[in-house]
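Write out this protein's structure.
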Amino acid sequence: MRVSSLILLSLWGITHLMPAHAMPVFARYYKQQYGYMPSCHACHTEGGGTPLNNYGKTFKDNGKTLAAFGKMASLDSDGDGIVNSLEAQAKANPADKNSTPAKTGNWLDLASLIPKEVQALFPTIRAWLPKDAVLTATDIATAKTMGASLSMADENTIYIPVENQRPAGTALIFPAQYQGKTFFLLMATDKQLKITQIKVMNATEVPAAKSSSVYGKFVGMAAQSVPAPSSKDLDAAITQAVKNAGVLLYVRLKGA
């Protein structure tokens, strides 16, 4: 399913900045191996930016390269009795036991690409434009001048809700790091890229992240203008992660 070209042209004038069919590097590897773009659900539990599922973990353990797919080909990551390569070749999800070559399911449909938590932030929205934020060397250099440390590993999916053929905001799921452990946050903005909400998606490794009071301080800030943290505690780790995510949004959507 594709969103109309009129919607593409209305997105802050960004079509010249972000290719219409851009993909994060790992999805490009998947397409090179199997001939089609996968959903983020191939490697993530609930869309781009969320924790890895078993297939994603195996991909990571095998080096996160094109060659990793060959090493994983004879494995059965989802335990449905069908090896990964046969499922992927049939456009079934090798990470979901309910998706098989005989019944692939809707994992490649646009509606399935939008995480439920993201949809819940925009309950009246019925149309979405997921855009893969592929970072260039210029983007990374620009982000550094803005106090954000980004790399190609930070490539992500930006979820854009569309209303009346115009963008109504953005949402991004992204990781944060604290004392060597990872947790995941969800940020929503309005169409001017002002933060409207930050919430915890998954904090199994850092439970204290759920009770932090820092999230409310970001509401109303321009995504690219979150101040750099001045300490090294958990709130600082959250702040830096939010800053990085906000700058990522800005450089890919506003072309800073």
